[in-house]
């Protein structure tokens, strides 16, 4: 645990799906320092994919990150969900210095194979 706490730069991975949002704070090596999700914060059902739920989860991660001594962040976003912007705003409001915002959402190049033709 001691090696995780002495880094100043961290990475925040925000995975935003249609059903939930998961926020993970890691150091540059990839060791997890803190994580949170909308479900962990007590939201259920359709409320898990709201910007407010993402904000609450991001604030929870931010508190743990400040206690660990993280001051600068690189944000990596993945997924099409609703809470992406709200999570970043919550991190900015907690006085983190955001260096980079990367969006690594996978984009299909040609899509999946279409169904075969209907025979009548």
Automatic annotation (TrEMBL):
Per UniProt, the keywords (alphabetical) are: Ribonucleoprotein, Ribosomal protein, RNA-binding, rRNA-binding
Q: Which domain of life is it from?
A: Bacteria
SUPFAM superfamilies in the record: Translational machinery components
| GO biological process per UniProt | translation
The UniProt entry, under PANTHER family, shows: 40S RIBOSOMAL PROTEIN S14/30S RIBOSOMAL PROTEIN S11
**Role noted for this protein:** Located on the platform of the 30S subunit, it bridges several disparate RNA helices of the 16S rRNA. Forms part of the Shine-Dalgarno cleft in the 70S ribosome.
Q: Quaternary structure?
A: Part of the 30S ribosomal subunit. Interacts with proteins S7 and S18. Binds to IF-3.
Q: What name has this protein been given in UniProt? A: Small ribosomal subunit protein uS11
In which organism is this protein found?
Karelsulcia muelleri (strain CARI)
Per the record, the gene is rpsK
